[in-house]
Amino acid sequence: MLEMDLAYKLLMLNGNARGMPNACVNLGRPMFSVTNAGEVGAPGCEDSFIVDGAGKCSKFVAEKKSNRSKGDKKSSRNEAVMSKSGEKDLVLDFVMQCQGVCANSAGHAQSQCKELCEDGLRPRNSELQGYIYPMCKHQLGCRFLQRVFDEGNSQDIQIIFTEIIDHVVELMVDPFANYLIQKLLDVCSEDQKLVIVLKLTNKRGELVDICMNTHGTRVVQKLIEAIKSRQQISLIMVALKPGLLDLIKDQNGNHVVQRCLQSLTIDQNKFIFDAAAKFCVDIACHRHGCCVLNRCVAYSSGKHREKLVSSISANGLLLSQDAFGNYVIQYIIELKIPSAAATLLSQFEGHFVFLSMQKFSSHVVEKCLRCLKDSQPRIITELLSVRHFDQLLQDRFANYVVQSALEATKGPLRTLLVEAICPYSEILRTSPYCKKIFSRNLLKK
Predict the structure, then answer these.
(1) What percentage of the chain has pLDDT greater than the value 90?
(2) Can you spell out the DSSP letters for 251-285?
(3) Number of domains within the chain
């Protein structure tokens, strides 16, 4: 009978209850009845009905133990041999059947929901054992338990915590239960957080696997935000370190690394900065890695940033031609760090024409023209030294570099560039790639 009331209360919470007569379901009763002696008794109802997805009712007779007659021995024996797994299935089956039932008494359901949450989960732990865990993995059960966190007290939290802690790894990657774990991290005590952290870091590689899961990554990010003690942070960092490169490149795991950068101190993120500097080329050339590397530069400072920027700049020519690495080089250029700019320009010098004619590196040359004024004379001089300058104007990538050069330069340098372009105006005005140079009035002095 406990499972039936639990399931019905879950239904009430979701607002999917059909208006049913009192003869069918005993409304307004607490989840558990407490006797004067402080003991918890299982709830009972005279005649209850289970509503299936088709809206039909099948009678479920649940008589109080005290009213049972001697003729009910057969029923008693059947209930006695019911396994705990069978009871769990009954709860979940009932809830799933009720999902299809339309709510036409929403106001009443809301009042019942409030009453249920006020009741909380205050019976003996043994009364709930075996029920909370399967409830976590069902949408309605998960919602009910989250509501208990909002409305309940520390005793309610402890009851749920005790029931699910041994399954926390599984629940973190569950489509529904992961929300409950996130909610738990908001309300649990520091001691409970430590227990969770110990569970996650007990097995090597397990936390990394959770981070790479679509649902698990959200919980780990929440955990990183929630932990405050040095012990907890140290345990998490040690567990993440062996799989850091895999996390950086993973579509889910990279968000965990970025959350570390946002939430932890520079000293605590040292292992991330060191790995980013050591494997900067490998990371920068990856779809997700390039974003993480930029964040590493953004959140670092002092010697950590100097080491990162130096390592990236030293590979500027290679990274500027990469589909993802070019974004990292552009970000370094935007910082306008003199030492990094000097290192990059020394590598680019003599290659500006080649870089301008490449899809990805052409963006880097444009960024140099806009952000590094000292680079403009070098770039313009190289572009004008091309034997067939008209071919450069018609190149599908280099023409954008020329446009950026006309927009960014001023004075004699711009005049020199305009004079080199004008002789080709009649011939190239209709060219598909360079016609923008002539149509945007960029040649006006």
Answers:
(1) 58
(2) TTHHHHHHHHHHHS-TTTTHHHHHHHHHTHHHHHT
(3) 1
